[in-house]
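Now for our specimen.

. . .
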Amino acid sequence: MGEHRQRYNEEFKKQTVQFIQGQTKTVGDLAEELNIPKSTLHQWMSQYRELKNEPAASVDRVRELEAQLKEMSRQLQEKDNKIADVEEELAIVKKAVHIFSKPRN
C-alpha cells in the first residue's frame, strides 16, 4: 500500500522558504531536518524565493550582487549624463527664447 502524502498550505511553504534562506546549511541537510523531500523544497524555493531575504554568504551570491551593483551604477551614470545633456539643451533654448522674444526696434 502507498505512503500517505503530506499536504502543506501556502503559508507553511512560504515560511519554510524564508527559514531556508536564512540558513547557511544546504537544502539537503534542511530537508533531512524538516523531514521533507529535497525536491519538494527545491520546488518551493523556485516558487516562493525572495532574494532580498537571502544572506550574502555564498560566493556566487556575492558575485551576483556585485554584477548587479555594477550594472545599476552604469545605468545611473548614463541617466546622469542624459540629464546633464537635457539641462544644457534647455539652457540653450531659454537663451534663444530670451533673444528672440525681445522687441525689434
The chain has a mean pLDDT of 83. The longest helix spans residues 59-100. The helical segments are 10-21, 27-34, 38-48, 59-100.
